[in-house]
Amino acid sequence: MININNPEINVDELMQRIREDVAKRHGQVQPENPTSKSIISNSTATFNHIFYHIDALLRNAESRSITRTKWPDNFNKFPFNLSIIKNFQKIALKILSYIFKDQREVNFNLIRALKESVGLNRQLIEEIASLKAQMDERLNAVDTSIQGMDKRFSAVDTSIQGMDEHLGAVYNRVSEIDNNLDHVDSCMSHLQEYLETMNSRKQLINDHLKTVDAHINTVDEHLESVDTRLEAMNERLGAVNVRVQNLDERDLRNDNYLKNDLVQQKRLITMFLEEARRRLPEPFSQEQLQTFAKEEQHSLDAFYVAFEDQFRGSREVILNKLKTYLPIIQEAKVGTPELPILDVGCGRGEWLELLRESGYKARGIDINRVMLEQCKEKGLEVIESDVIAYLQSLPDASLGAVSGFHIIEHLSFPILMKLIDETRRVLHSGGIAIFETPNPENIIVGACNFYSDPTHLHPLFPPTVKFFFEQLGFLDVKLLRLRENRLEDPLQLIEADNPIASHVNPLIELAKFNFYAPPDFAVIAKKAQ
């Protein structure tokens, strides 16, 4: 509260007192630690104490500068209870407030300015402390960097000393090299003299080589003429080798034929002599004569084996063609000991051999004794018998599959129908029949190749054969046309924009069908379940 007798505040006196107090307190503060961190901490504590004292003085000055609304408490001790006196007090207070109005405004402005100054001083002190801390950190980093640079300079000095030593060694080495170069120069001089001598000799050698080249050219010309003669001789030898190879193959076939025919002839003569020995001095009976007559049908066995080797193809070719039917056997799940496979007219046994290699149980029948002997030599199970007689000897549903490759074209129509009927009888339910024969849809086969075998009776039309099997009780009858791979098709269709294309292309398509139809087909039929 401001005393009525001292309504004004002496600002100069107040600031002087503040300065003295600050100087006094600043002189009393002693740093406990000489480091920069402790100095900053102590300075901050001192300034906080000073600012607290200044704030207290400013609050006191502000409280004394406010407008008075009542008399000081000290004046209340006097008995001024009269209403006149109270009214006088109020008037006096208003007069005083009016008189000191400007002074109060000045006092308030000064106090506000001092407060803002104190706030700015605080901020400046905090910023100075922060800057000092940052400067200390940067100075520490600089000190650390300087120490590292000192170490690096030391290392550089050491490296420079090593380089000086190395340069000294290099200088010594250079001196040695100079000495060596002098020796090399001396050697080069001698070498130059030697090269000049060698060039002279080289010139002589070149002259000699030219003479040799001329002689070699003459020899080359002679050798070319010799090579030409040798090529001509090689061609003649190749032709001779082909002729000899053909003769060897023909002689081998003839040899096989003669051997097989001699075996058959020997067998017939032996049988005839044995029968004659039994009957002598009696004449041959009718039964013996019939036996001799039956043996006559085997007189061409060896001949037909030679014919097959010549016209049907090698065993390797036939084996590759017959592999087409293995998936059919696998799908039918036949060829087991309970449901074996029978190959009628087994011939040389290619199909039986392929079935054995695939793990199927199979046997074959044929009337050609030479072919049967060849099958037996390969360990195949074969029987000599007529196909119809053998099928009739089998019980019903005893086979899993019956096959015949190029056999049905040798049979007359009644025998073919009986073969199909007996095949259906001996097959187990679900068993299959596979018969392959030449395809007359191919005009070359139907008009020419079919008749290369004199034992063929007549071509069989594929839909007709399918009809035979369907009428005799087979189900799911299919025709499989076996196409051969051809490298080139000489019959090409004419471009559609050609005016004759519509007339010629149908003829080309027909010709391609007739000439390039599969040469063989097979009928595959299944017995009803």
Helix-strand blueprint:
Blueprint: H1 11-28, H2 36-65, H3 83-99, H4 101-279, H5 286-295, H6 301-311, H7 315-322, H8 326-332, E1 341-344, H9 350-357, E2 362-366, H10 369-377, E3 382-384, H11 387-393, E4 399-405, H12 413-426, E5 427-438, H13 443-447, H14 462-471, E6 474-482, H15 501-516, E7 520-527
Parallel strand pairs: 1-2, 1-4, 2-3, 4-5
Antiparallel strand pairs: 5-7, 6-7
Helix pairs in contact: 1-2, 2-4, 4-6, 11-12
Note the gap between the termini.
Answer: 131 Å
Largest sheet: 7 strands, mixed
Beta strands, count: 7
The string of secondary-structure elements, in order, is: HHHHHHHHEHEHEHEHEHHEHE
Tertiary shape:
elongated
* Uncertain residue segments: 1-8, 28-34
The helix/strand class is: alpha/beta
| Strands ordered across the widest β-sheet | 3-2-1-4-5-7-6
- What is the mean pLDDT? 77
- Global Rg: 67 Å
Percent of residues in helices comes to 55-70%
Strand content: 5-15%
Number of helices: 15
Description:
With 529 residues, the protein is α/β, with parallel strands linked by helices. It is 66% helix and 9% strand. It has 15 helices and 7 strands. It has helices at 11-28, 36-65, 83-99, 101-279, 286-295, 301-311, 315-322, 326-332, 350-357, 369-377, 387-393, 413-426, 443-447, 462-471, 501-516, and strands at 341-344, 362-366, 382-384, 399-405, 427-438, 474-482, 520-527. It has a 7-stranded mixed sheet, with helices on both faces. Helix 4 (101-279) packs antiparallel against helix 6 (301-311) and helix 11 packs parallel to helix 12 (413-426). The longest helix has 179 residues, at 101-279. The protein is elongated and about 185 Å long. The protein starts with 10 loop residues before the first helix and ends with a strand. GO terms for molecular function: methyltransferase activity.
